[in-house]
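#structure-requests
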Amino acid sequence: MADASNEPGIRRAVASDVGAVKAVTDAAYHPYIARIGVVPQPMEADHAANVAAGRVFVTGGPGEGVAGLVVVEAHEDHLYLDSIAVRPDARGKGVGRRLLAFVEAHARELGLPEVRLFTNAMMWENRKIYPKYGYEVVGRRVDGPYDRVHYRKRLV
């Protein structure tokens, strides 16, 4: 299966990317630990298993350095965006926007009508960003120590 290639420079991660996936995820989410009072779930993910399962897509070619990544999971009726992470020194350069566009293109490529995601309620930066890209709030739930705001974007 071809990757949603209307976003050049984004490719499916390979085993040699696992270290970079962990490093970028940790760097992107670490600042939130103090704010939310717990380690964000993406930092505790099994990155090697996600890469092996084909769920991780990264920016850049092998050896170029990963500036950002997404972790996705296809379901019968939607593509779930599990995590999006941009290296702190790459913020403000359109990496996140390109990754979101990639996720939507990938969902369309898979024939899925919407993208779903959630963010911690204390990550207010994200809560401002997602609506700008057409995501609507569909709920808010507390799951253990996490207060999560759920979003979706219909791709019709």
